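User: Here's a structure from my thesis project, written as structure tokens. My advisor, Dr. K., wants to see whether a designed sequence matches the one we expressed. Can you design one independently, without my sequence as a hint?
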């Protein structure tokens, strides 16, 4: 069993999201040049054991290359609100510390990098990113049974780093940092214990000036007061998951949600709403009159669609970066009866020669009740323009109290009041 929840990144992201809002806002006009940059980074870290009898690991070693740009334009509201962060893309090659059973991974992760604790020092920054990883060695029931962390070649990848700049000028920046690296396949195949690594790193960045300082806008032309905009949104989603560790067949999850809330200063989006989900794997298990239905839940056969459904409420927070949105949701499942089948199968234990179903204990109640969702959106129209109508595409990982539930692609619509 992993020391950390399989989607521990959701909790880390929500914490960093709060830190971003607390420390990044700044109404001071920037009069610094924009620049492009390229960086090379070396990281070394310790990966926690994902399960009992997990393979022995040496320290994880990684080589990372990043490219990006500053965003010093005060006319871009999200850049001004976040104290003019850097954005870009990181490519990494990582040796996981056991070539035979965990192998190597290649990752591609978009990121945002912003100053923190700026009232105390100008040398600290926080970098977070969400992307994808490719693993060349994965779980195999016969040849690699002890690696229950990664069972698909492609996974979600989440990185977060906190850096302290040891030396910096206009052309060069050298930093030391601590970080966290998480990989999970989003329940597309089991086992999916996930990998969690804590890192130390050395980061070397080279800068090339892109433009002269922005001095055209005066402070009177840029509103400093709080601007709010009410929005209404709906979305449909198509997800995929497997029911249990005994199945490799992916089944669909059909999702629908409506929400409302406010956008503050074109950057911070807060909302609340309700969702409905239909789980095809639960429905098929009930319709096929499988073992647990026959023995424990025969009433499910009377209304398979209803018992395979999930209703809930949620609250959300989103960071708007023009065409890109990074969103975290925390939800409350009001109705999810078939999850007890999911839990009892996947928490089954072999004790004294007998298989025992997972116990419906307090931890089951917690995971059945609390849902979470983390992902990224692409908006057709830049949110910096405050459009009345907008559509978006999104990719998400959904979880039961931090444990991956299903991976989802989403199409949505937003209507905003003036």
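Assistant: Designed independently from the structure alone:
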């Amino acid at each position: 069993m992993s020391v950390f929840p399989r989607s521990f990144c959701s909790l880390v992201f929500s914490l960093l999201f709060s830190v971003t809002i607390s420390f990044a806002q700044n109404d001071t006009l920037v009069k610094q040049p924009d620049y492009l940059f390229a960086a090379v980074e070396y990281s070394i870290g310790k990966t926690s054991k994902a399960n009992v009898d997990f393979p022995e690991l040496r320290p994880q070693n990684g080589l990372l290359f990043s490219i990006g740009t500053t965003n010093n334009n005060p006319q871009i509201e999200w850049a001004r609100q976040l104290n003019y962060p850097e954005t870009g893309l990181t490519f990494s090659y990582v040796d996981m510390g056991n070539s035979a059973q965990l192998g190597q991974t290649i990752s591609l992760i978009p990121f945002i990098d912003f100053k923190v604790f700026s009232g105390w020092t100008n040398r600290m920054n926080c970098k977070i990113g969400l992307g994808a990883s490719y693993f060349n060695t994965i779980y195999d029931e016969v040849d690699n049974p002890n690696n229950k962390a990664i069972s698909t070649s492609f996974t979600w990848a989440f990185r977060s780093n906190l850096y302290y700049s040891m030396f910096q000028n206009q052309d060069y920046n050298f930093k030391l940092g601590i970080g966290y690296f998480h990989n999970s396949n989003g329940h597309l195949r089991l086992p999916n214990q996930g990998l969690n690594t804590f890192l130390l790193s050395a980061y070397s960045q080279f800068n090339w000036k892109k433009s002269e300082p922005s001095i055209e806008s005066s402070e009177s032309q840029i509103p400093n007061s709080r601007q709010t905009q009410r929005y209404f949104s709906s979305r449909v989603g198509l997800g995929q998951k497997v029911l249990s560790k005994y199945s490799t067949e992916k089944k669909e999850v059909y999702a629908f949600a409506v929400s409302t809330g406010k956008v503050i200063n074109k950057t911070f989006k807060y909302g609340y709403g309700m969702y409905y989900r239909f789980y095809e794997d639960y429905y098929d298990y009930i319709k096929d009159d499988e073992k647990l239905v026959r023995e424990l839940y025969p009433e499910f056969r009377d209304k398979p669609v209803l018992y395979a459904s999930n209703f809930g409420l949620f609250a959300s927070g989103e960071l708007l970066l023009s065409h890109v949105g990074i969103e975290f949701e925390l939800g409350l499942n009001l109705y999810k009866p078939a999850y007890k089948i999911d839990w009892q199968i996947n928490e089954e234990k072999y004790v004294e020669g007998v298989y025992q179903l997972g116990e419906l204990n307090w931890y089951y109640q917690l995971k059945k009740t609390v849902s979470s969702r983390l992902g990224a959106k692409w908006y057709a129209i830049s949110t910096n323009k405050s459009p009345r109508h907008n559509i978006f595409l999104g990719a998400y990982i959904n979880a039961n109290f931090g444990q991956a539930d299903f991976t989802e692609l989403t199409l949505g619509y937003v209507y905003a009041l003036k």
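When you compare it with your expressed construct, this may help: The two ends are 50 Å apart (CA to CA).
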